[in-house]
Amino acid sequence: MYRTEENLHGTYYDYDVTSGGETRRTADPYAKACGTNGRRSMAVELERTDPEGWKADRAPERQREDIIYELHVKEFSWDESAGFPEELRERTGRLRRRIPRCQETAFIRPVSGI
Q1: 91-112 as b/e, with b when 16 or more CB fall inside 10 Å?
Q2: Is residue 6 classed exposed, middle or buried when 0-12, 13-18 and 19+ CB atoms within 10 A define those classes?
Q3: Which pLDDT does position 114 carry in this prediction?
Q4: Is 76 exposed, middle or buried (CB count within 10 Å of its CB: 0-12, 13-18, 19+)?
Q5: CA-CA distance, 114 to 70, in Å (whole number)?
Q6: Which residue of 13, 24, 29, 54 pairs with 50 in a disulfide if CB–CB is 3.0 to 4.6 A?
Q7: CA 18, 14, 19 angle in degrees (round to 5)?
Q8: pLDDT tens figures, 13-37
Q9: Which helix (H) or strand (E) holds 24?
């Protein structure tokens, strides 16, 4: 374990791991934050990363039944058997308009760079 009195918040770091005579640079698998694509670890004070109003944030009230889906829009909508017109397939924003219940309840977040 590394300890220091210095404030390292926002500092990137790596590990050099040697095995079988070969040394590789790697990220810390237990890091709380990382750089682009997870290639470097970052020391953080998580409290300093909280957005304004975070401490007052509360979970939404429970509904009679909570249904949570995680899906990939392309895989969900690409085939004609899904019932989406061709111009709406694989399109995040358009998918939300197409599913009536999603208009009020869904949070669809596009993910890029995968």
Answers
A1: beeebeebeeeeeeeeeeeeee
A2: exposed
A3: 42
A4: middle
A5: 16
A6: 54
A7: 10
A8: 999 999 999 999 999 999 999 988 8
A9: strand 22-26
CB 84 within 8 Å of CB 98: yes
pTM: 0.47
Sequence letter at residue 48: R
**DSSP 8-state secondary structure symbol assigned to residue 90:** T
Residue 79 has pLDDT above 50, yes or no: yes
Tell which wins on pLDDT, 6 or 74.
6
Q: Answer whether 69's CB lies under 8 Å from 106's CB.
A: no
